[in-house]
Amino acid sequence: MLCFSENQRMELRTLSCFLLLLSVFTFADAGSIGVNYGRIANNLPPASKVVELLKSHGLNRVKVFDTDPAVLKALSGSGIKVTVDLPNELLFAAARSKSFASTWVERNVAAYYPSTQIEAIAVGNEVFVDPHNTTRYLIPAMKNIHNALFKYNFHNAIKVSSPIALSALQNSYPSSAGSFRPELVETVFRPMLDFIRQTGSFLMVNAYPFFAYESNSDVISLDYALFRENPGVVDAGNGLRYFSLFDAQIDAVFAALSALKYDDIKLVVSETGWPSKGDENEIGASMENAAAYNGNLVRRILTGGGTPLKRQADLTVYLFALFNENNKNGPTSERNYGLFYPSEVKVYDIPFTVEGLKNYHDHRSPVTGNQHMTTPVTGGGGVSKSSSGNTWCVANGDVGKEKLQAALDFACGEGGADCRSIQPGASCYDPNTLSAHASFAFNSYYQKNARAGGSCYFGGAAYVVTQPPRFGKCELPTGTGN
């Protein structure tokens, strides 16, 4: 039995109160978890049962990909916050006609709000990769939808945004070098970010570490991708150490915002997830990995702490997706992102609330649990999915000729890159430009170092790409020993 003096008891009571307050503030400042409710399936339960499913598991935020009346009516009075979507195919009409935007808001928002707690409108989805080339309609459509909210005085309560894919980044590794694709900066991102800033909204980002791991499993540790214990990856640009691929991807977006002087813009992760099943070539797609990724992500978000670059950035994250959707096209993984089967049974057991986290443990199987455990985490911090699984290192012309030349000299000198092909008369001498020659040298160094983390940085003079670059007739090779 322990005995304490009065002073010691007072100190213990003070400490206990402090710890209690600390825990309250920690969870009060933490992020929140929502779920994407996709319905590309022919075997899903009715919307009324889905709402009860959400409530029974403590899920109080949902994102839908349309404005289906049955869904919005079922959500009425539920207390669940809702993000609705204006589909890509309506962007042209919403951009061209203010009356169309006004009618759309009247029928799909005003008809249900506030009983259905619509908190945001996603105008389009991953518009920049839409094969129908709807990018030019995005900003006018967002503005027209926002202006239509004024009529009902909803403009402060309901935010307007648009989810972007990580492919909107020109560079995502290392995170500190994150930047948006140059052709989108002035035409889309600056006006979009100005709009978001003026309206108090946020940028929606779809982030899938699974794609990066699947395409670069030779250099990305599975533990790093699944929020498990790992040595971490040090960002050569800012010295921060990352222990999860998710954080690295999100910080690449924050860095891209910072590069354009939009440090004040908040992010919402509008989609992220991991498939429980995949085709033979879909490396990492398994039930155990999906459970680990989503379960550890929930814990990561609900216990707060922000990201290494943005410590105060407590994120709202929408898991993808609520159900396995049997009518989706594409590889097997596309039909197996669900947290629940259509029968409403969990695909795997993970919590969605702080209360549920108390008894949660990430269970590894003895067969698969040690994948990459002894392999150093060497790179791929935010590389988007590529068709081949290969990556290349190219020059960043924005740093200026002096810095680019210094980096080229280093690569061909003490860096040990094979620069014979860019000498006069050699196969890659033409085009005779600093950018082309530097790209060849940087890529040689990068591939020679097995695409290791930080080997494609050169003080910001280079970045990783996931599509094979070409300079004239010269293609940059992959593999070692260029």
From TrEMBL:
Signal sequence, start to end: 1-30
GO biological process, one term: carbohydrate metabolic process
GO annotation, cellular component aspect: plasma membrane; plasmodesma; side of membrane
Family: Belongs to the glycosyl hydrolase 17 family.
Major location category of this protein: membrane
Domain X8 residue range list: 391-476
Keywords noted in UniProt: Cell membrane, Disulfide bond, Glycoprotein, Glycosidase, GPI-anchor, Hydrolase, Lipoprotein, Membrane, Plant defense, Signal
Family matches, as PROSITE patterns: GLYCOSYL_HYDROL_F17
Subcellular location: Cell membrane
Enzyme's top EC category: hydrolase
GO molecular function, one term: glucan endo-1,3-beta-D-glucosidase activity
Top-rank taxon: Eukaryota
Protein's name in the database: glucan endo-1,3-beta-D-glucosidase
The protein's Enzyme Commission number: 3.2.1.39
Catalytic activity: Hydrolysis of (1->3)-beta-D-glucosidic linkages in (1->3)-beta-D-glucans
InterPro entries referenced in this protein's UniProt entry, alphabetically: GH, Glyco_hydro_17, Glyco_hydro_17_plant, X8
Record carries keyword Disulfide bond: yes
SMART domains: X8
Pfam families per the UniProt record, alphabetical: Glyco_hydro_17, X8
Lipid bilayer topology: Lipid-anchor; GPI-anchor
